[in-house]
Amino acid sequence: MSEAVVRHKVEDRGSRAASPGWFRRTLDSDLFYSFRRSKITMIAAGVTLLFFLLAIFASALAVQNPFDPAQLQLMNSRISPLWTADGQSPFLLGTDEQGRDVFSAILYGLRISLVVGVLGVLFSGALGILLGLTAGYFGGAVDGLIMRVADVQLSFPAILIALLINGIAKSVLGNRLDEMSMLGVLVLAIGLSFWVQYARTVRGSVMVEKNKDYVAAAQLIGLPAPVIMLRHVLPNTMGPILVIATINLALAIITEATLSFLGSGMPETMPSLGTLIRIGNNYLFAGEWWIVAFPGLALAALILSINLLGDWLRDALNPKLR
């Protein structure tokens, strides 16, 4: 091996060692700088992270498993919060009519709401991105068909589409629809309600990107269309997709809570935040305000924090505002 080759390898290793790692590049990025400048965004991120951690470690933090009837006692029903005159330990936020600890029910209900929301966003994002890439890249009749379907769906509210899909699933499956199947139906209903935004956004970006030189070069060397779309075109459209996904996460959680409040979501044996609000609403005028107040506050705080993150991300990734 010649001396020049050895010197080149040593210099290359030295330059790679001196170059900052991905963590350092993240700290020095414009996105992280914008994040540090906004105290509201940092608080919203902290609150969102706290909710996810509470959902993940619900089984360790909860006083009881509200989904297990063996752990419930009717003698403990409708106990007021701990700081009131009639409060009892260990029920910090009181209990509901079935003797469920409200704090434990919120933790487990938060887990259900986040699982449905995240899975719904992942499903709608995957479907919308796939259809948007296909419509934008191939154009013609394929583009026209997909966009007309999207236009028709946009004429209906998302909650109406979710109710329709939910009703069809219940009529087809009937008594075979258990708690886990109901969770899957909610994910399907929410996913099919929100794919249009992804498809339209990705289609517009793809129509711009496919006319650039790197796409022509990829076509020239014989790369298949799926590889070009997924490996080369899709990464250049991720900015708007991340913004839509963040905002749609809040919308998906609200949609699930609305469906559950209307009685078309998760059952009372496996309640989400929306189901807890529906249950507590029946006892609001009887004086047991805590049954509905605390799940409602938890849902409002979660939605607000995610929306604040989505607003910041939209502004931070907008090149016109830099």
TrEMBL record:
Membrane topology per record: Multi-pass membrane protein
Compartment(s) of residence: Cell membrane
GO biological process per UniProt: transmembrane transport
UniProt entry keywords in alphabetical sequence: Cell membrane, Membrane, Transmembrane, Transmembrane helix, Transport
Residue ranges of domain ABC transmembrane type-1 in the record: 110-310
PROSITE patterns, per the entry: ABC_TM1
An annotated GO cellular component: plasma membrane
Transmembrane segments: 40-63, 114-139, 145-168, 180-199, 214-234, 241-262, 289-313
Domain of life: Bacteria
Family assignment from sequence similarity: Belongs to the binding-protein-dependent transport system permease family.
Protein's recorded name: ABC transporter permease
